[in-house]
Design a protein that fits this description.
The chain folds into two domains: 3-122, NAD(P)-binding Rossmann-like Domain (Rossmann fold, 3-Layer(aba) Sandwich); 126-308 and 344-355, Dihydrodipicolinate Reductase, domain 2 (2-Layer Sandwich), CATH 3.30.360. Strand 1, helix 1 (12-22) and strand 2 (29-35) form a beta-alpha-beta unit. It has a nine-stranded mixed sheet. It has a six-stranded parallel sheet with strand order 3-2-1-4-5-6, sandwiched between helices. The chain has helices at 12-22, 39-47, 56-60, 78-87, 102-115, 129-139, 175-190, 312-322, 331-350; strands spanning 3-8, 29-35, 51-53, 68-71, 92-94, 119-121, 146-154, 195-203, 213-220, 225-231, 241-245, 248-252, 260-279, 282-300, 354-355. Helices cover 30% and strands 31% of the residues. The protein starts with a strand and ends with a strand. The chain has 356 residues and is an alpha/beta fold. Bound molecules: nicotinamide-adenine-dinucleotide. Residues 8-14, 35-38, 41, 72-75, 77, 95-96, 122, 124, 165 line the site of nicotinamide-adenine-dinucleotide (NAD). Nicotinamide-adenine-dinucleotide binds at residues 8-14, 35-38, 41, 72-75, 77, 95-96, 122, 124, 165.
Length: 356
């Protein structure tokens, strides 16, 4: 039996990606109804075989109800729609970014706890092939202990432009809330240790009111540093991933072909040598340890998964509804990431490093 999916906001993402995905044979959901304020999108929902509603109350009263409601409006309505759906008795998955502020997110979490309804967020990029491979290589200790992780998205020509509501501040537009929220969710999920500081530059280059460039630097308790950068207009691209560890480094140039290259220390030695030092205008001798790397080895990480399988989001929710799986995208994790985003905006606006 397939779980019934209701959709609020039947735009490009919901009417295209989500419907295509849940119609796959291996996904135990079926799309049954949509609510939207745009008659053209409702006509398209009907064309795709869904019941279409122009009133939220009528949508909530859809015969047979829903096992899950997806909220995929512009970002400014996620909180209101998610809370209303949970109040109406439905489990909810919100599209990313989950909300406009951590206060809104807290309201969604409180509503979920009070109503006892499941609440999660479509952080589908946890299943991106490039990220899965980097995560696995780090967990396997391929480059030893990481001390610096760079995650970067660059577009040469404004791909993912700040068009329509994405260019409007009061709709939650801007690249940090668009791509940035995916990249920070990946980093925060990968690195579980406490965050110490967040510093950032976030600004519009061509956009009228929202950011199209952002760089966020997160320092973790152990000293590990993570850099996230979103560049909307860059004719030259740096690697998607660059990671340094105490036993080597790894890089992935392009998320499209997702090849992880590792250059790892094969043989090294420490030698203690005498070196000159200059104290009190005299030359003295001091002992110093010199780290000599004698040989490196090159390897490519084997493909962990053949494709980015975002359908896993729905499979996991089905497992939670069946009682066989634990929820993967947890609201508390989404809150941690959202606090990083708010700290980044604060750091950029005030020119300060934010203690987390
Ligand atoms: N997870 C991902 O990889 C991913 C990718 C793209 C978009 N998204 C997210 O999906 C959401 C939608 O993005 P999109 O590209 O489909 O945008 P879109 O503009 O194509 O669609 C938004 C839809 O919401 C409808 N809408 C707006 N306000 C509404 C309201 N108050 N009530 C009901 N319907 C309303 C609009 O009419 C439109 O059909 C955004 O939150 C976006 O960030 C996620």
């Amino acid at each position: 039996m397939a779980y019934k999916l209701g959709i609020i906001g039947f735009g490009g993402m919901a009417g295209g990606y989500h419907v295509d995905t849940v119609l796959r044979e291996d996904i135990p959901f079926e799309p049954v109804a949509a609510y939207d304020i745009d008659p053209n999108r409702l006509a398209y929902a009907k064309q795709r075989g869904l019941a279409a509603y122009d009133k939220l109350e009528d949508f909530f009263a859809h015969e047979g109800g829903f096992d899950l409601v997806l909220v995929a409006t512009s970002n400014n309505y996620h909180c209101e729609m998610a809370c209303r759906a949970m109040e109406a008795g439905f489990n909810v998955m919100s599209e990313k970014p989950v909300a406009m502020s951590s206060e809104e997110l807290q309201k969604m979490i409180d509503t979920s706890e009070r109503t006892g309804k499941l609440f999660t967020v479509h952080q589908n990029r946890r299943w991106d092939r490039d990220f899965v491979m980097i995560k696995k290589a780090l967990e396997d200790g391929e480059i030893g202990k990481p001390y610096m992780i760079e995650s970067r998205i660059q577009s040469p020509n404004g791909n993912g432009d700040m068009y329509n509501w994405r260019g409007m501040k009061d709709h939650g537009g801007g690249m940090l809330l668009d791509w940035g929220v995916h990249m920070l969710d990946q980093l925060c999920w990968l690195i579980k240790e406490p965050i110490k500081t967040v510093s950032a530059n976030v600004f519009p280059l061509w956009s009228e009111e929202v950011d199209d460039y952002s760089k966020v630097i997160i320092t973790f308790e152990s000293g590990l540093v993570a850099h996230m950068e979103v560049v909307t207009y860059s004719p030259i691209a740096l690697p998607r991933w660059m990671v340094y560890g105490d036993r080597g480094a790894m890089t992935m140039q392009d998320m499209g072909d997702a090849k992880v290259k590792i250059r790892r220390i094969k043989e090294d030695e420490n030698t203690v040598i005498d070196v000159p030092a200059y104290i009190d205008h005299k030359v003295i001798t001091r002992k110093q340890t010199r780290h000599n790397i004698k040989e490196f080895e090159e390897l490519e990480v084997p493909e962990v998964v053949p494709n980015s399988d975002w359908g896993s989001v729905y499979k996991n929710i089905a497992g939670v509804l069946d009682g066989t799986e634990e929820l993967i995208v947890k609201p508390c994790e989404v809150m941690r990431t959202f606090k990083v985003i708010e700290a980044a905006f604060k750091s950029a606006a005030e020119g300060v490093t934010v203690q987390f």
